[in-house]
């Protein structure tokens, strides 16, 4: 595999056309709204942020209190980070006394029945989005859906694909070739994705109000805090998204056809446990259907193949139409130490890592490989910094240090090739910083959080609340707010309200007919 990677990178470098520079990067960052006391907000979506249904930059995820910031796709990490920062600053100007929770694991939250679902108005599409979220609550519990993260979206520049296809002497259509290569990238990212949890995991502790009875085996740090001494990302463990509810869903990523068919089958296959919930009860929808998945987005994976869908188009239909356009990485925790939750070095490392995953040989994944991937992710999430922890690689036991060093050596070679365009060292320096964390796990974000808790004697909630106040003050003290960006977001907020009203006025069929047509 190493030889395959080196040969491909050498061929790319020989082209001399900066083929790897300028891939498009977008960020989706979630954050809970909380009151001054750190409790989950029970207020409606702030009016100044416009319509959560149609605003292009600021929407909501599961709960009315769970904001999601969405950037356009940019060619540079600075543009992406600047946009995230501007959206944060504008949002704070509309929040009043509320704050943004700075951590992936939730604040001190109430029971499921008190957590408000996101609301999107009376249009059919808006009602469908709320019903879908109600179904998630019935299926998995509302508390789990309040976990937040950062999604990193990436695509290679268009000019890369023709040259790369020629290098590999591939004569298939360009869409089919691109999709096949992105799937190879995704399979390799799954194999190596444990490294993201080790390097960027920032959820080694959580509030007991969230964990409930699920954390009986965890250690108590304080009266209100559970923790794992060597944990990295409890968000990605069996306490968070890696739950057993979807354990029977082995959606193949060995071909685009298999992936689309697998997802489509899950959406059409009845699940007895969900049939017991009911679909429409006493005239009100509890969920969209009683199948294994209500819609494609319910399938949780640390990485997804994506294509921008047209209006009313289902994600699988978009993939069938044009193939994979970009990949979405979903395993990044919110970094408590960054006011925006992510920084340029993280983005640079992730970009170089994804290109490394693309250039590596990527065999098909079978059941044993998927079990190994799942084991490595869950175990790294809970015990990744333990000096005695071992990963599984092709049936063999391997140390974190050995495998991480091999991977980051390859990522560094990719970073150096990207750096050629700007004649600087920014990508390479980002990778070298992460290499330092391999030998010094006590400097990872997860270790730093536990050290802060130990030094201060505070619990997770008090520590995160203090960080929330610090981040609020940071955005308040920025001397020169971006007036052009603020004006843009104000204009978008107003326009989004109008778009929602137009949607609601244009509905010409009942909700029942709309849903039947959508799934038909």
Question: Major beta sheet, specifics?
Answer: 7 strands, antiparallel
Secondary-structure class: alpha+beta
Radius of gyration of CA atoms, rounded to a whole number: 23 Å
The level of helicity is: 40-55%
Mean pLDDT: 94
List the total number of helices: 18
CATH topology: Creatine Kinase, Chain A, domain 2
* 3D shape: globular
**The CATH class:** Alpha Beta
3D architecture notes:
It is a single chain. The two termini are 44 Å apart. The strands form four sheets. Strands 1, 2, 3, 4, 5, 11 and 12 form a seven-stranded antiparallel sheet that branches. The chain has helices at 2-15, 77-92, 124-140, 158-167, 174-192, 194-200, 208-211, 256-268, 272-275, 315-322, 344-359, 367-383, 400-419, 426-439, 445-456, 460-477, 483-506, 511-519, and strands at 24-34, 58-60, 66-70, 99-100, 150-155, 205-207, 219-222, 225-227, 280-281, 284-285, 303-306, 326-332, 390-393, 396-399. It has 520 residues and is of the alpha+beta class. It is 47% helix and 12% strand. It has one domain (2-158, 189-301, 327-519): Creatine Kinase, Chain A, domain 2 (2-Layer Sandwich). Helix 1 (2-15) runs parallel beside helix 13 and helix 8 (256-268) runs antiparallel to helix 10 (315-322). Strand 13 and strand 14 form a beta hairpin. It is built from 18 helices and 14 strands.
């Amino acid at each position: 595999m190493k030889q395959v990677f080196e040969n491909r990178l050498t061929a790319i470098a020989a082209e001399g056309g900066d083929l790897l520079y300028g891939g498009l990067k977008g960020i989706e960052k979630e954050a809970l709204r909380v009151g001054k006391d750190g409790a989950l907000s029970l207020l409606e979506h702030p009016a100044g942020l416009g319509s959560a249904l149609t605003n292009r930059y600021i929407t909501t995820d599961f709960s009315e209190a769970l904001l999601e910031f969405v950037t356009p796709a940019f060619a540079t990490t600075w543009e992406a980070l600047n946009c995230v920062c501007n959206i944060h600053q504008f949002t704070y100007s509309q929040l009043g006394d509320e704050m943004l929770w700075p951590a992936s694991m939730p604040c001190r939250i109430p029971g499921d029945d008190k957590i408000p679902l996101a609301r999107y108005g009376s249009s059919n599409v808006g009602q469908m989005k709320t019903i879908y979220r109600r179904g998630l609550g019935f299926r998995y519990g509302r508390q789990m859906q309040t976990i937040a993260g950062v999604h990193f979206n990436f695509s290679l520049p268009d000019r890369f694909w023709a040259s790369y296809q020629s290098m590999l002497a591939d004569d298939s259509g360009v869409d089919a070739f691109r999709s096949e290569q992105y799937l190879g990238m995704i399979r390799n990212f799954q194999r190596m994705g444990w490294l993201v949890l080790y390097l960027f995991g920032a959820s080694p502790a959580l509030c007991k109000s969230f964990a409930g009875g699920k954390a009986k085996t965890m250690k108590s740090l304080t009266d209100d805090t559970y923790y794992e001494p060597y944990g990295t990302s409890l968000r990605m463990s069996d306490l968070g998204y890696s739950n057993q509810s979807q354990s029977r869903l082995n959606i193949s990523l060995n071909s685009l056809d298999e992936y689309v068919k697998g997802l489509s089958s899950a959406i059409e296959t009845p699940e007895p446990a969900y049939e017991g919930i009911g679909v429409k009860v006493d005239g009100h929808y509890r969920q969209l259907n009683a199948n294994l998945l209500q819609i494609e987005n319910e399938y949780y994976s640390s990485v997804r193949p994506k294509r921008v869908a047209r209006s009313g188009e289902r994600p699988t239909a978009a993939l069938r139409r044009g193939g994979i356009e970009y990949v979405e990485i979903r395993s990044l925790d919110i970094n408590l130490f960054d006011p925006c939750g992510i920084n340029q070095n993280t983005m640079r490392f992730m970009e170089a890592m994804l290109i490394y995953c693309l250039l590596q040989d990527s065999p098909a994944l079978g059941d044993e490989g998927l079990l190994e991937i799942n084991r490595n992710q869950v175990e790294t999430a809970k015990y990744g910094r333990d000096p005695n922890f071992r990963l599984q690689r092709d049936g063999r036991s391997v140390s974190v240090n050995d495998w991480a060093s091999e991977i980051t050596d390859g990522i560094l070679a990719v970073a150096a090739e990207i750096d050629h365009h700007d004649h600087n060292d920014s990508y390479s320096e980002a990778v070298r910083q992460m290499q330092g964390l391999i030998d010094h796990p006590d400097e990872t974000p997860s270790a730093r959080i536990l050290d802060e808790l130990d030094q201060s004697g505070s619990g997770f909630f008090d520590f995160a609340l203090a960080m929330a106040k610090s981040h609020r003050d940071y955005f308040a003290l920025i001397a020169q707010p971006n007036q052009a960006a603020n004006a843009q977001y104000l204009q978008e907020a107003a326009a989004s309200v109008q778009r929602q009203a137009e949607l609601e006025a244009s509905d010409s069929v009942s909700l029942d007919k709309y849903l039947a047509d959508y799934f038909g």
